[in-house]
TrEMBL record:
Keyword Metal-binding recorded: no
InterPro entries cross-referenced by the UniProt entry: Mur-like_cat_sf, Mur_ligase_C, Mur_ligase_C_dom_sf, Mur_ligase_cen, Mur_ligase_N, MurCDEF_pg_biosynth, UDP-N-AcMur_Ala_ligase_MurC
Compartment annotation: Cytoplasm
Protein name: UDP-N-acetylmuramate--L-alanine ligase
UniProt KW keywords: ATP-binding, Cell cycle, Cell division, Cell shape, Cell wall biogenesis/degradation, Cytoplasm, Ligase, Nucleotide-binding, Peptidoglycan synthesis
Coiled-coil parts of chain: none
Keyword Cytoplasm: yes
GO BP annotation list: cell division; cell wall organization; peptidoglycan biosynthetic process; regulation of cell shape
Pathway recorded for this protein: Cell wall biogenesis; peptidoglycan biosynthesis
GO CC annotation, single: cytoplasm
Segments forming domain Mur ligase central: 117-293
NCBIfam families in the record: murC
Length: 458
């Protein structure tokens, strides 16, 4: 089905951050947009205000008439939805065009120049940075992001530009649907082993992804990754890292709440780049974002302006309270390497402060596979509070609990295990200098209440 033939779009699993960006794209086009989601959330409520019809029970009777027309309705589903879902079965049994979100994005990368960012971690920040740089430049862009950009208050940008910035998701091999014009690969630390099975299969998936980059395009890959790319003839290859590579930083200055560095590039060096969100980990993300924007024609001044005015992403090193007496932030980090980088950045920023993390592990399989790595990463901090595992799509695994992480935290780290519903009371009854909530589960839903409690204690 061509995009121009679509009159209605139905989402089976409407409330995910990535799905909502596609929903908004079609809402903007003036189509009938409807869908199902398991649980109401702030995001689904906002989508309803914008005109999307959403219900929260499996019920084919609630599918709008326009979405029951096979010839003109596109059905989009998330892999997290079980195959036996009543509504998904209804569409399959009646021969509807059914696509994953990534297939829809793949179509867009064939209609536009796709600037895609893949990697185990860093891809949301890097793609959002690149989208902001491009959008405020003379080039402009469309964008479909995996997080809410603080600059725009949304996870998508729509324009008449020929460029589209896309966060390329490796979960369920979704990024294999894309046909990038250019791509950044930030990292390939094994993840989603419940899907891939082995590290080798995970790395092979990234290798296959690099084959999809279009001739005359480019790959911008982090130095020293384990994966081996396989590029079509005519695809340019660049590497980057913090301190070395085709693109890297020099003369890094961190102090007084600011980070400034020189961007070193084979195209044109850019001096005195200031980070709008001054977090050490964002230097490297910024290098990748600037590299892709520069390769597509952004000027030095546009790069500097874009980086200086970048506001960050919700739940990505997201400061909620920042005073001399108390710092509180929320971070989506849920893989050991992400936790490590997040903890390292917090420690760099607050060398002399007592740092407490409340961590909600995400997935039983990820906890089983990486509990020692989680413990090592968290052990950079002074105090670690663990809640029960957020299961997402999984059933419990016998013997796999947060205690695996708890038992492997290094000696000297103060530690505690509590239930998720005890977190607010824990915050009420304890004092903090720096507090961070970590994880990709639903603990973040309580962050607004945490802010109120912490502010009331000042």
């Amino acid at each position: 089905m061509k995009i121009e033939d679509i009159k209605a779009v139905y989402f089976v699993g409407a409330g995910g951050i990535g799905m909502s960006a596609i929903a908004r794209y079609f809402l903007k086009k003036g189509l009938v947009v409807a869908g199902y989601d398991k649980t109401p959330s702030e995001l689904t409520r906002q989508l309803e205000k914008e005109g999307m019809l959403i219900h929260y029970e499996e019920d084919t009777e609630q599918i709008p008439f326009a979405c029951q027309q096979k010839a003109s309705c596109l059905v989009i589903y998330t892999p997290a939805i079980p195959a036996e879902h009543q509504e998904l079965q209804f569409f399959r049994n009646n021969g509807f065009e059914i696509q994953k979100r990534a297939q829809v994005l793949g179509t867009l990368t064939q209609a536009h120049k796709g600037l895609c960012v893949a990697g185990t971690h860093g891809k949301t920040t890097t793609s959002t940075m690149c989208a902001h740089i491009m959008h405020q430049s003379h080039l402009d862009c469309n964008a479909f992001l995996g997080g809410i950009s603080k600059n725009y208050g949304t996870n998508y940008i729509l324009s008449d530009s020929d460029f589209v910035v896309i966060e390329a998701d490796e979960f369920d091999r979704s990024f294999h649907w894309l046909r990038p014009w250019m791509s950044v690969i930030t990292s390939t630390d094994p993840d989603h082993l419940d899907i891939y099975g082995t590290k080798e299969a995970y790395l092979e998936s990234f290798r296959h992804y690099t084959e999809l980059i279009q001739p005359e395009g480019a790959l911008i890959i982090h130095r020293n990754l384990e994966m081996k790319e396989h590029l079509q003839d005519g695809v340019r290859r660049y590497d980057y890292s913090l301190n070395e590579g085709d693109f890297h930083a020099e003369n890094i200055r961190i102090g007084n709440g600011e980070i400034v560095f020189d961007f070193i590039s084979p195209i044109e060096n850019v001096k005195d780049v200031q980070l709008g969100q001054p977090v050490p980990i964002n230097i490297e993300n910024g290098i990748a974002a600037m590299a892709m924007a520069q390769l597509n024609g952004c000027t030095a001044e546009e790069l500097k302006y874009g980086m200086k005015t970048y506001g960050g992403v919700d739940r990505r090193f997201d400061f909620k309270i920042k005073t001399d007496k108390l710092v509180f932030l929320s971070d989506y980090a849920h893989h050991p390497k992400e936790i490590y980088q997040s903890a390292k950045s917090i420690r760099e920023l607050y060398k002399d402060k007592h740092i407490t993390a409340i961590f909600q592990p995400h997935l039983y399989t990820r906890t089983r596979d990486f509990y020692k790595d989680f413990a090592e990463a968290l052990s950079q901090l002074d105090e670690v509070v663990l809640t029960e595992i957020y299961p997402a799509r999984e059933e419990p695994i016998e013997g796999v609990t947060s205690k695996l992480i708890y038992d492997n935290l290094k000696t000297g780290v103060k530690k505690e295990m509590i239930q998720k519903d005890e977190v607010l009371n824990y915050i009420k009854t304890h004092q903090f200098e720096v507090l961070v909530v970590l994880g990709a589960g639903d603990l973040d839903n309580q962050v607004p209440q945490m802010v109120k409690i912490l502010n009331s204690k000042k």
